[in-house]
Amino acid sequence: MGLELEFKLAVPQPECLEKILFDDAVTRARRGDFRLLEMATVYYDTPDLALRQRRWTLRLRQENDRLVATVKTPAAGRARGEWSCEAGTIESAIDKLIALGAPAELKELTENKPLSMVCAAKFSRRAADLVFSDGTVCELAGDAGKLMGGSKQEDLCEVELELKAGSEATVQAFAEELMERFGLQEEPRSKFARAAALAQQ
Questions:
Q1: Quick one: pLDDT at residue 2?
Q2: What is residue 201's predicted lDDT score, i.e. its pLDDT?
Q3: What was the pLDDT predicted at 1?
Q4: pTM score
Q5: Which residues are CB-contacts of 79 (< 8 A; sequence separation ≥ 6)?
Q6: Residues linked to residue 38 through DSSP beta bridges, in sequence order
Q7: 12 to 59, 147, 179: CA distances (angstroms)
């Protein structure tokens, strides 16, 4: 199973995000320059909200000039099941995602049901790998933009630390260090959850 394990930190304003991205501790651990990605995401579900009932997320995201479909499912602790593939439409991605290891039930839930947009997000991401002294590798991503649900919008500004290899404890310690130094709070809700809540207001 593909697993994603990340720490998501809410950032109060873009000025604070700049300080975090170019903080001395980040710069020391960073390998290479930041990669800039322009993201436009649409989240999908069936008319009976079969995916949301299972706490699954299905999205199609434009990442610069690529279209990437992703499905996420709950897993133990902070982890989530995650599978991604390039696809022109969300419908054409279903079989590809299952072939990569996503639950076969995804086909049953979406077959003969129209998939429609639930909510969306549009943001700029700057991302780079961080390598720590014990060899642990994580991706640091700074996101700034908008969450959109129905006719409502909400500012998005956050930092994500996603474990790539090594120790979860090392990444957690670094996340806690950033939280203490910059007065941040952990963001418990995903982008989808926040955007979907806007659509329900």
A1: 73
A2: 83
A3: 45
A4: 0.93
A5: 3, 4, 5
A6: 124
A7: 26, 15, 12
Cβ distance 40 to 59 under 8 Å?
Answer: no
Tokens of 186: 């952990």
The structure tokens 């290479």 sit at 32
> What average pLDDT values come out for the chain (201 residues) when binned by 10 residues?
85 97 97 97 96 96 97 88 96 97 96 94 98 98 97 97 96 97 96 95 83
